[in-house]
Amino acid sequence: MERILIIEDEEKIARFVELELTHEGYQIEKAMDGRDGLERIKARPFDLILLDVMLPTINGIEVLRRIRQTKDVPVILLTARDSVIDKVMGLDAGADDYVTKPFAIEELLARIRTTLRKRKTTRNTILTHGECNLDITRRTCLIKGVSVELTKKEFDLLQLLLENKNHVLSREILLEKIWGYEFDGTTNAIDVYIRHLRMKIEEPFNQQIITAIRGIGYVIKDE
Ligand code: CA
To answer: 10 Å Cβ neighbour count for 130?
Structure first.
C-alpha cells in the first residue's frame, strides 16, 4: 500500500483529500504545517507528498527545498490559483508536479497516479558510460564487471555527472546539488571528492571517466 503525506493547513481540504485517497486505497498521514510535515518525513518514508505552498511555520517551497537536500520522494504542490511564481519556484525547487486550487479530486488522483508511475520507471534506471554501470535502485556501481563500493556522496556525485552527460557541471552546481546549503566549506571539497572517486573508478581500472574542465568544473563525455 502506498503511503502519502498531506501537508495542508486548511483542515477542510486536508480531510476531504484524506477521505478520497483512503477510499482509493492509499495510506494517509496528515501534517498541519511545514515543521510538522518535515518531522514526519524525517521519521518515516513516504511514497509521495502532497504539499500546500501557503503554510504556517515553514512555507511549502522552503519545505520542498529541505526535503530535496536528503530525499527524492515525489512531491506534488498544491498552489493557489494563478500563482505563476509559486509554480516556477516549486518546479525549480524540485517539485514533480503541481495542482492548482481549487482542484477536482479526479485531477488530483490522476496526477498522483502519473507521478507514482513515472517514479517507478525512473527508479529502475541504470546509468551507463562505457563499462561503468550505476544502478540507481540498488545503489551499486560496477566498473568493468567489478563491484566498487562508493560512499553516499561519491555515488551522488557520479550519478549527477552521468545524468548530465556531456554537460559541464560547475563546482558550485555540484556543491549545491549534493550538499545543499548545509555546506559552508569551499568548492575545493568537490575536487577532493572527485579525487576519491577517481581512486575507486579510474585508477584501478586504468581508465579515465571524468574530465576536469579547468577553472569551471567536471564532465563525463561520451567517447
Ligand atoms: Ca494553505
So the answer is: 14
